[in-house]
Fold these 3 entries.
Entry 1:
Amino acid sequence: MHIAIAGNIGAGKTTLTRLLARHFRWEPQFEDVVDNPYLDDFYNQMERWSFNLQIYFLNSRFSQILQIRESGKTIIQDRTIYEDAYIFAPNLHAMGLMTNRDFENYLALFELMENLVQAPDLLIYLRSSIPNLVNQIHKRGREYENSISIDYLSRLNERYEAWAHQYSKGKFLIIDVDKLNFVDKPEDLGHVIEKIDGELNGLF
């Protein structure tokens, strides 16, 4: 079974992925931010590196999905291939940070990949306000994220909401995270686990 967590930068995807993997005894698959060779360059010069970064993520996510389906295990994935194609790449294109030529090339590659993979059995979207995202980004202190603007986060949030309303590829759960503290409050994590249990029971 394949469970995936979606959400804007700083929404808590990695933290929740780790906690749910531990609780349900699922195998976690994390987004590659430590070894990503483009992230630092991208945040310093978005227009130059946007295509390179998005292709790197697309390739990484596609490989993950193939491994997940071949493994036969229940795996929870931190971020999805859909966010790259429906949120991040179109946003960069709309902001003039990715050329028409690169964007069309990117979409053609995504559409080819999408035909070869299945959607997650359950997709969990972490909905967050901009102040909460900014607070979480500041708290974790990744140097390359210091240059992220509120305008950039706001544009992404708008695209996440539009995508969430249109998603129809499988089971979809929205969790509002503004007032939740998964790490320090067991009752908050319990609330999320209860919701997920409710969705998963319908899968069998």
Note: DSSP finds eight helices and five strands in the chain.
Entry 2:
Amino acid sequence: MPFYEHVYLARQDLAPAQVEALTEAFTKIVADTGGEVKSNEYWGLRNIAYRIQKNRKAHYVLLNIDGPAAAIQELERQVALNEDVIRYQTIRVEALETGPSAMMRKSDRAERGERGERGGDRGGRGGDRGDRGPRMDRAPREEGAW
């Protein structure tokens, strides 16, 4: 059977327990139509790029699905009817990821530090002047130059 990744965004005023109940309901829909949800990930309450139906944040959830196209069609039909879901997207993939998704690996960066392994200095403008030495004082302005 083909593999799919289905991501949906739930309204910001829902509790995480309600989002989990939505995920269980969608998992049951897939199972009833001959598919299987291999894994699901709750990415948390995140800011969205623009306001959708007066929501500035949304709960993000990923479902990795192994199932027929009929299961995906029924899932998308039910998701579209649900008032708690503000956006969704399903894509067909060649293989399902076995480990955590890219969104979950992104949070590992916080454990290493804000800037990763390099540290906080970017070596760009501002801050330390590097090997250029101290800035020379400017000549004082003449009166009436402006």
Note: The radius of gyration is 25 Å.
Entry 3:
Amino acid sequence: MQPLWRRYAPLAAIALALVAFFGLRLDRYASFELLVDSRAPLMDYIGRHFAAAFGAFILTYAALVAISAPGATLMTVAGGALFGVAWGLVGSVVGATAGACGLFLAARSALGETLAARAGPKVLRLRDRFKEHAVGYLLFLRMSPLFPFWFVNLAAALAAVPLRTFFWTTALGVLPAGFVFTAAGAGMDEIVAGALARRDACRAAGQALCKLELPLSAIVTPKIFGVLIGLSLFALAPIVARRIWAARKRLATK
């Protein structure tokens, strides 16, 4: 067993980074209005230094996900707005997967052994069931818009899911929503027009604070939300089928 400080050091570093993120008020840069205002100079820089800009985008995305800071969704939209659908989706998937794996490994190192040592038999059985059907459960949690990204990372770590399984299910699971937000970002002019219309309506209503904002409802319409939910439920189909088959087999042997 590795020393206690070494087990908790990665998770402590992530916690300190999150505290510093808010302490330095870096969250104010996760702003749709800032993206709109800085898009032109960023596009100019990307045109001259594509590789450096693309690498910086992936690293920034991975860092935000690793410390569970806000802004990952906006980064996905920004990827489409700055790099187009294809490159934006690649960068978002790579960044999200790398950051998720970082948090997963840190949490598994710090919390995995503690859970195994202190949890009761019911919790351990639940963990074993999750691990047994890790692919289906992880794809369901990743594709569903109902579960926060950080929650899935920690749940997989506590369930002692193998890194390889966590890696590829994360990369595959973020694709559907990632494509939706990246494609929305690629149609930046349409998004900006909608945001401006909402701001003008806010001002016309006489409200004092009217900012250029991008609510998720502007991208994830009820139809798209239903599609994402449907895809996530489809990932559970093999687990449900296996349980039905096992139940029928038990009945047949009685």
Note: The radius of gyration is 21 Å.
